[in-house]
Amino acid sequence: MKSICSSWLRALALPMGLAASLFIAEHCEAKPTPPGKFAVQTKNFTLNFEVGEDGRLYQRAVGATDANEKLQRTDECYPQAGDGYIWEPALQVSHADGNTSTVLAFEGVTRTNDAAGRELTRITLHDPAYPLEVTLNFRADRERDVVEQWTEIVHHESGAVTLEHMASTALLLPAKNVYLTHFFGDWAKEMLYPITELVTPGTKVLDSKIGVRADQYRNPSFVLSLDGQPAETSGRVLAGSLEWSGSFQCAFDDNGTAIRALCGVNPFASAYHLKPGETFATPKMIWVWSAHGLGEMSRKLHSWARDFGLRDGHKTREVLLNNWEATGFDFDFNRIVGLYDPAKEIGTELFLLDDGWFGNKYPRVDDHAGLGDWQPNRQRLPDGLAPLATEAVKRGLRFGIWIEPEMVNPKSELFEQHPDWVIRQPKRELELQRNQLVLDLTRPQVQAFEWRAIQDVLSVPNISYAKWDCNRYLTQPGSPYLASGRQSHLWIDYVDALYALMDKTAKRFPDTELMLCSGGGGRVDYGALKYFHEFWPSDNTDPVQRVPMQWDYSYFFPPLAIASHVTHWGNRPMHFACSVAMSARFGMDLDLNKLSAEDKAICAGAIGAYKQIREITQMGDLYRLENPHETFRGALDFVSPDRSRAVVFAFQLKDGQNVAVQPQGLDPARKYTVHELNPAPGRATIPQEGKTFTGEELMHDGLVPSCSHAVEASVIELGP
Ligand code: DGJ
Question: Which pLDDT belongs to residue 20?
Fold first, then answer.
C-alpha cells in the first residue's frame, strides 16, 4: 500500500505545495483519500481524473470546459454496480460471499515508459471491504494522440468472484451535440452503411453476440464527433476501436448530463468466474483524437497501426494473385501451375492457393466436406503442396496457402474421430453454417490439433504467405469441454485461446505473411490484426461497392492492410476495377488465361503503375477528398512522408461533369509534375498532363481527371 502511494506522488510530479495538500497523511490507509487531480495526456488530448473527497476516482468529460463543476456519481471513472450507481456500470461483480455490490476507492497511480516511448499510466483502485483490486491502464502514444485503454481485475477472496460486467473503458463525454458514426453491414456488405446520429438520452448499444469473430453486422469501431456532424478537415472527433475478435459491446449511455462510452467484451451470457489470484485483463480499447476532423484522425491511426497495430507495418506489400474467384474448388496441380506463367508475365509477385486443396476420404471438392482433414488431396495434388510451391518459386513467384484451422465439416475424418470436439449445445440438433462447425478451442486437445495443422502446412518449403479464414460464427455456444458452471467462459476463453494460437504462429513463422479473413470481413479488428499483415475486407469485390467500402474501412485501417482484388464481380470495366484495387493492397483474383489481350494489357499496366506508387499509397498519408456515399464520385490522394510525391485517385460512380479534384496534403511551395498513370485506352489526355505546378496551385485549382462517366477512373501521379 505504502509504496503504491509514494509512487503516485512521484508519478504526479506535482508542485510541492499542491502535492503536500494532496497528502494530508503519510500513507493510503488514511481516510478519506485526499482529493487530487491528474491526467493522462498526449500532445492534443487529455483525460482528466480527480480523486473525490469520498476517495472515489472521477473523470472530467472529454473536452469539457466546466472543470470547476461539482463532481457527481455519474462522473465516476469506472462505475461499479450495486452501491448507489444506477446507470450502466463498467464493473459488476458478485463477490465470493454473494455480495453483488462493489465500491472502488482510489489507491495510487504509476507511470512508466515503454521502449517505443509510449507512457503507461496505471491507476489502481480497490474495494475497501473486499480484497479486490482494479487497475485502469492507459498507454499513450503522445505524438499520434492515441490512447489504448484496458482494465485488469484481481482479487484474493475466499473463493471465485463472478464478473458480470467488465468494461475495457467507460469514457465520459459531454452530453451536448455529440454525434456517433457507426457502420452497419452483412456478408458482402461489410462497412457499406455508415450511420451518423445524434446521441440522445438513453442507451445506444452496438454489439455482436457471435463469439468467434466480432463482425457480421457491425465492426467494433466507431467515431464520436463533438462539434456536430463529423467532417474530414474540421471538428473534434474521437475514434474508438476495440481490440477484440469476439462478441463485443459498445454502449453509449446518455443520462442527460454526460455520455458514457462503455466498450469491451459483451457481458451477454459471459459471466466470468475469477479464481483468487487470477488476473482478468480486458481487451484494449483504442482511442484516437483529432481536433481537425476525420482525415487527421485516420492519418494518426494509420501511422500508429504501422508501428503497433499490424505486423511489418513498414514493409510494402506485394501484388498477389488468388485463385478463389478464378477456379473456386475446381482445380488440380496442372490447372494451378497453368496460372503461374501469365501471373508472372503481368507482374504479380505472389500466388495464393485458396480453399479446396485437402481432404482424402472426404475430398474438399465443395464446401460440404473435408474441413479438418488438412492432408493435401492425393488426386488433385499427388505429391502434396511442396511441388506447387516449388513451381511458383521457380517462376519468381512466392507461394501462399489458405487455411481455416478452427473449423470442421461433419463430413470429415476429424469429426468421425472426435465428434465431441465441436461447439454445440447438448440435446439440440446441430446447426450448420456453410455446412460446418466450430472446433472448441477451449479444449487443450483442440488447441494442440490446430497448432499441429498450422505448423504442418506452414512448414512446407517455399510457403511464405497464408490466408487464415473463419467461415462461420457461433449460434449454439456450448462447450462439451467446459464444466457446466463455466459454460459462460466459452466466449472469452475461445478468443484468448485463438490469440495464443495466432501469437504462436506469428512467432514460429516470422517470415510468413498472414492475411486475416473471416468469410469476408468478419474479423477486421486490431485484436487479431497485430498477428497479421493485412485483412480481407469482403467477398464483395465489385469495384463500385469497394469504393465506399474501402473509404469506410480507411477511417480506422491503413490502406496497406486492406486487400483489394480485381475480379469479375459486377462486370465492371477492367480499367476501373484495377484503379480501385490500386488504392489499397493490390491483388487479382482472375483466370488470366481467359482474359482478353486488351484487359491483360490494362492489368499489366496497372500492376506496373502500382509498383511505382505503392511506397506512397502504403507508407504515405491518406487524404479522403470526395465522399462516394455523398457525391457522384469518390476521390482520394496519398502523399509520401516527405511530401515530394503524391497520387490522386478519382472513381466516377455516376455520369457527371469531370470537375477538378482538389488534392490535399501537398507541400504548397514544392513543384509537382502531373502524370496520369496507366490511362484508360481511348480516353483523352488530361489537360494538365506533363505540366508542372506548385502544391499550392494544385490544392487550390485542382486536377481535372480523365473520367466523366460512371465506372471510369483516373489515377494521377504528382512527382518531381
Ligand atoms: C471465404 C473467403 O472470404 C473467400 O475469399 C474464400 O477464401 C472462401 N472463404 C473459401 O472458402
Answer: 32
